[in-house]
## 1
Amino acid sequence: MAVAIGAGALALARPGSLDTLLLYAVLAQSWNLIGGLAGYASFGQVVFFGVGGYLTALAMVRLGLSFYLAMPLGGLGAALFGLAVGDLVLRVRGLYFAVATLVLAGATKAVLSSWPGLAGPSGVLTITTVGLHQPTARPGPLGFDAVYLALAAVSTAGVSVLVRSRLGDSLAVIRDDEDLAGALGIAVRPAKVAAFSLSGALAGLAGGVYAFQVTALSPAVLFAPLLSVVMVAAVVAGGAGVLGPLRGAVLLWLLSAGVGSLAPELRDVLVASLIVAVVLVEEGR
Amino acid sequence: MTGSTTRASRPASRSPGPTGTSDPAGDCGEAAPLLKVRGLTRRFGGLVALEEIDLDVEVGRLLVVMGPNGAGKSTLVDLLTGYLRPNEGGFRLDGVDLTFSPRWSLARSGITRTFQVPRPLARFDVRENVRIAARCGSPPRPGRSAAERQAAELLSETGLDGQASCYPAELSLASLRRLELARALAGRPRLLIADEPLGGLAGADIDAGIALLRTLARPDRGVIVIEHAVRAVLQVADELAFLHHGRLLRRGPAAEVLADRAVVDAYVGAGLLRRGLL
C-alpha cells in the first residue's frame, strides 16, 4: 500500500512546493466527502477537477470574466455536474462504483478532447496572461499559494461543519449500513448525491486555480488520472474525518518530494493495485 | 395503488374488551385506528407469504403478531416499513395511505422498526447510535444538542444509561435488543414495530424485556411486537394476531386466541413438525 501511495505522489509535475501541498489538501478534502464520509470510493474524482478547470478557463477566455468570478463559476459548474451524474453512478457501490467513476472521467475527457470548439486547432486552450486582453493579472507564486490556502481552509472548515450536521450523520449511516439508513428516516439517494456534488465543488474550485496557474490547458493536463489517485491515497493514508485528509496530504507531499520518477507502465500497475486494495478494504470493512 | 380501500367495507373484528376509547366525532364509539391494514398480500413467485391481511392497531395498544416459522410475520414487518412492496392491498397510518412510500418516508411519517438480527452502527457507541436516529427520524427533527438530550432520555428509559459509552461489540444480546428499541424509539414513532425483541434471550433478561415492552404503548403511540414465547405474549399483548401460512388465523385477546383449537393445532403442529414428529 505504501508503495502505491508513493506512486500516486508522483502525480504532479512540481512536487514539494507549497502550492502542491495545499492543492493536495483541497483535493483530499474533496475526496473525503464522498470516499471517506459516505464510503463511496471514487476513482474518477479528477473529472470535477477537469470540469472546474475548463469552465474557469472558458469563463475567463470567452467571457472575459475575472479569475475571481470565473473560479467560483467553475466550482459551481462542477457541483452541478455532480448533481447531474451523481444519481446514475451512485446506484452502484464498491468496485462497481470505482469502475463507474473511472469510466465517467475517461468519457468526459474523451468528449472534451474531441470537442471542436473548445480549443484552437492545437487542442490547447490558453488563458491569456499578457497583453491588453488578459482578464485578470496573474498572481505570483505567493498569490497562488494564498488562493490555495484559502481553498484548503474553506474545505476543511466546510468538512468540519458537515460532519456535525444531519447530512454528516446521514452519510455516516450510509457508509456503515446503507440498507439500515432508510429505516432511520434517511433519504439515501439525495444524501449521497449531495455529498458527491459538494465533493465536486471542491475539486472543481481547485481545478480552476490550477488552470489559471498552468494557463495552457489540454484534457491531458486537467484530466490526469493520477490526480484521482492522489485524492484516494491521501484519505486512505491519512484517514477520513476532518483532519485525516490533511495528514494524508502532507504525507503524500513529503513522499512526492523524495521519490524519483518511475516508468509510466509501473505507475499504471501501482495505480491499479491501489484501486483493488482500496476497494477490498472498503468491502471488508 | 389498489385494494386498500375496497376491502375496508369488511368490518374489522375488533375485540369488545377495553378497546373503547371514546370518539367524540363518531356515533359508533370507535376511534379511527392508528394503523389500518387491508387486504395486504405478498407473493414470492408461487409462494404466498402473506394473504389478504386485515389488521388495526390503535394508539395506546400493543398488538402481538405470532405464528410458526414461515407464517409471514417478517414479511408483514418488511411490508409496513418499506423493505418489501405488497402485490395487493395496502395500509394507512392516521388515515394516510403509505403503502408505497419509500423507507425513509415511512420512518419520517412515524413507522419505525427494530431488526430481528440487531444491526447497530459498529463505529459508534450506544449514545451516538441513538442520537443519530433521533436526529434523522420523524419531524420535528432536533438539532444536534436536542438530539443528544433525547438520546440520553431514551437510554434511561430503556435501561441502557450504564452502557452509553460502550460500543456495540461490547454489548450482550439483551443490551443489543434494547439498543434496537432505543434507536427505533428515537425516531419518534407513532407506530413502533419490534421484530422479536426477546429473541434469543433467557431468564432474567426475558423478564426485564417484558417489563420494558409493557412501557412502550403510549397515548400517542401504538406498538406491534413479533413474538413467539407464550408466557411473554400473555404478559405484553393488548391484542394478539395469529398468522398461519400467510393468513390471519385468529385475532383477539391473547388468552382467547391462544386457547383456540385452530391456533393450538397450528402451533403444536408446527412444533411437532420441527421436531420431526409429524
Note: Chain A has one domain: 2-284.
## 2
Amino acid sequence: MDGEELTEEETALYDRQIRVWGVDAQKRLSKAHILVSGLNGTAVEFCKNMVLAGVGNLTLMDDRPVTEDVLQSNFLIPPDEAYYSGRSLDELCCESLKDFNPMVRVSIEKGDLSQFDGEFFDKFDAVVVSCCSLKIKKAINEKCRRRPRRVALYAIECRGSCGEIFIDLQNYTYIQKKSDGTAECQLKYPSLEEAISIPWRDLPRKVSKVYFAMRVIERFELSEGRKPGETSISDLPLILRLRKELCDAQSLSESHVPVSLLERMLAAGGKEHPPVCATLGGVLGQEVIKAISGKGDPLKNFFFFDTADGKGIIEDISNSSTS
Amino acid sequence: MASGSQLEAIKGAKVLMVGAGGIGCELLKTLALSGFQDIHIIDMDTIEVSNLNRQFLFRQCHVGQSKAKVARDAVLKFRPHINITPYHANVKDPEFNVEFFKQFNVVLNGLDNLDARRHVNRLCLAAEVPLVESGTTGFLGQVTVHVKGKTECYECQPKPTPKTYPVCTITSTPSKFVHCIVWAKDLLFAKLFGDKNQENDLNVRSNDGTNLTAPTEDVFERRTDEDPEQYARKIYDHVFGYNIEIALANEETWKNRNKPRPLYVRDVLPDNLIQQNGSLENCVTEESVVSSMLSLGLKNPQDIWSLSENSRIFLEALRLFIEKRQKDVGNLTFDKDDQLAVEFVTAAANIRASSFGISLHSLFEAKGIAGNIVHAVATTNAIIAGLIVIEAIKILQGDFENCRMTYCLEHPSRKMLLMPVQPFEANKSCYVCSETPLILEINTRTSKLRDFVEKIAKNKLGMNSPMIMHGSTLIFEAGDDLEEDVAANYALNIDKALAELPAPVTSGTVLTVEDLRQELSCNINIKHREEFDEEKEPDGLVLVGWIAPTQKDTRLVSNGESTSTAHPAVTEMVENSDEVGIAPAKPGTKRKLSEMSEITDNVHDITPRSSRDVNDQVNPQEVEDDNDDVDDDIVILDENPETRKKKRLQ
C-alpha cells in the first residue's frame, strides 16, 4: 500500500506490532473508523485494544449513566461519584481512552443508533454493538448491509461466565496464506437475522450449547420487553418453559440447552465476569484488526467462550444457500 | 461477575504477580476488576516507548519509571481500595526467598525470560505454592498450571535453548541473512567496540584451525593519530575485502558453494561519494541521538538500502562511534535500543550478505533479528490474562480437577481458537521436581571446575548461587560473604581440571549441586569422555537425564517453514529447536504428554512455534459424548495421529 509513510513516532510506538502484521496493515488501521455502540465491559476491553493498536478514529455511543454494574467491569472510570455523576458513559470512557494513545481520535456521538439514517454508517469500516435488544441489533445490521461500501458488523453478548460474538463481513475477499503460496479466498456471511433463523436441526452437529442458551434468553427478554441482562435466577421457570417450546418447535432435544448453563447465565444478570470480558474483547479486537488490514483468516461467523470448559469455539452458522 | 463462592475465594486471596509487562498490565487490571484485594507485583524493568502499544497502564510521561510502581498507581485509579504492593526488583534477588513465596496462595507469571521462569518454578515448588505460567508471541499464547504433586512442573519438559550456529557458518560460509547478523553483531561489533580481551573468531580460519590473518600488527587497533575516516575504510577493506580474498584461497570450501565477492571501498563507493561523506560532517549537530542515518539523510527504517548506501552507513557509523562515542568504545555490547549500534550492524550484515549473494534487509528487519525482538500485540496479552485469572480462581477454590492449560491459537484447531487441554502429569525423571540424577559426559582431564560451575550449574541447571559437593566434601560455593581462606581455596581450585581437584572428579563420581535459595539439589553422575564433536557439541559436554530413558526422542516437526508469522527472518531466529518428547501410553494410566510449544512475551531466549505446526503435530481429541447433555467434555492431546482413538475422560 502506497501513500504516506508512518511517522517516526508511529514506527517507534507500534514497533512490536508492526512485526506481527506489517507496515501496510498498520497504515490501513490508522485510516480506519470504528463505531462502538453500547459500552459494556467487553466493549471497553475492545476499545482499549483498538486504541492501543492505533486505529484512526473511534466513535463511542452510550448515554447511560454510571451504575454499580457498569463500574464493576469498567477500568476506564474512577469510582468517584463526584467525578462521574451527571455524565454519560460514553463521555467518561472517551475522556479516559484519549489518554491511552494521543495518535487516535476518540469521539462520541449522541442519539439512538437504530433511528439513524443509513448514510450515517458510511463513514465507518466496522460497527460494534452491545447492550441492546436483538431487534435493534438486527435493524443496525440491515442498515450496514445496505451501504454501498462494506460496513462490517460485530455484535457482542456477555452473560456471566459465557460470551458470544457475531460477525457479519457480508462478502469478504482476502488473500489466504498457505504453505504453498497464497490463494484468494471468498467468504459470504449471512446477516444476523438469516443466521439465527436457520432451523436448529440444520446446524452443524455438536454446535456450541452456548448458542442455544443465548437464543432462548434473548427470546425471553424480547417477549417480556426486558432490557438485555435484565434477568435473574427467578426467571428460570419461565425460561425453561420457553426452552421446551423452542426445542419442540425445532425438534431438538432439550438436553442441548442444559439447565446448568441457563442458570449460570441468568444468575449473572447484568453483571459481567471481567476475565470473560478480557478474553472476548481480545478476540474481537483481533478480528476487527484482521478485517481492516485484510491480513489473516477472519472468523466466520460466531465465536463462543465459556469459562466452565474454557473453550473458545468458532461456529459457522450459515445456510448452505448463503455460505 | 464471579459467583458467591468464587468471590469469597478471591477476596481472601493473596497473590504474587511476577512481571508487569505486556501480560502483567492486562493481568493486574483483570485481577483488580475481578475483585482481588491483595496483589504483590515484582518487576525490575523500567518503561520504554516500544512498550506503550500494549502495556496500557503506561503513558509517554512514564518512560524510564518502574513498571511495577506505575502499574500499581494506574490500577488504584479505578480500584482505590485494594492493596497492591510493588517491588521494583529482580525476582531472583535473595529477599524473594522461599519464606517470601510461602505467604501467597498462588503465583502468576507474566515473564519474558527462561531464567526467571525457572527460578520462580523452583521457589513455587519449594514453597508449595501453585503457579500459573503464561507466555505470548504475536497471536499465539498459552497458559499452564503447575501444582506440586498434581501436575508437571514448569521444567518437566526440556525447554528450548537459543539457537546457536556452527562457528564456521558464521565466520566463513554464511548462507542466510541471520548468519550475517550474528557475524556483524557478535564478531565485528564486539571486536571493534567491545571488550578487547574477549576471544573473537572474527578472522577467517583455515581448515587446520590456524588463524591465517593473524597480523603482526592488529588492524583493528586504531592508532591514536589515525584519521577516523581512514580507519573506517581500512576496517571495511579488511573485513569485506582482504578476509574474503583469504577465504577464497581455500578452494576446498567453495567446491559446492557460491564464491563470495570481495568488496573494497574504492569499488563500492566512487570517490565523490566518499568525499560527500566527509562533507556531511557539518550537518551533524549536537543531536541527542547520534545516528548515521540522520547524517546521511536516510529516513525510512523499512527501506532496504543499496550496497553503496550500506557502505556509507557503515563508514559513517564507525566514524561516529570514534568521534562522538569514544568513551563507550571498548566496553559496548550490542543493544537493540542503541540506534547507532543497530545502524552499524544492519550495514555490516548487509554488506556481508551482498558479498555472499544473500538478499539484503531493512534496518527494521535487521533490528528485529539482531535484538531477538519478539512481536507482541495487546489483544493476545488481554486474552491470556483473562485465562490466567480463570485458572487462578479455580486454584483458589481448590478446584484442581478442572484446571486446564490453554492454548491461544492463530488458526482454529477443531473449531477452537482457545483450546483447553488437561494438565500433564509430572515427569518422573524431572531433575527439578523429582530426585532423578543427571548424567554428565565431560572430559574430566581438560574441563575445569570453572566450566562446571558456569556451564552446568549456572547455565544448564539455572542456579544462581550453586554449591558443589563431592560426597561430603564441599568443593565449591558461590557467594560474596565467604571466609577469606575458603574463598582463596576456591580460587585456587576453580581453574583446575576436574580430575586434578584435591577430591578428583572422574568417571563414576557423583557430584551434588545445590542452590539453597531455590531449595533445589540434584545429583550428577560424571562420565569421562575424550572426544566431542566441535559443531554438534560445541560446549564440549553433554548433560542428559531430562527425559525418562523409556521415552522415545520423537521429533514430530523440525520446524522448517512457518507460514503464520508475518516476518520470516524473525521466525528463523525464534524458531524452536526443542524436541517433543513423548511418553508411551501405559494402559490404565493417564498419558503424560509433551508440551506443544513454549511461547513467551518479549522473550529473548525462548522460541515459539507457529500454531500451524501446533495444529499439524498434535491431535486434539475431543471426547465424544454419546449423551449430548454431558457438558464436561474436555480435550486431550493424543500423541499419535495414526492411533486416533476416542477416549472418555470424566
Note: Chain B is about 35% helix and 15% strand.
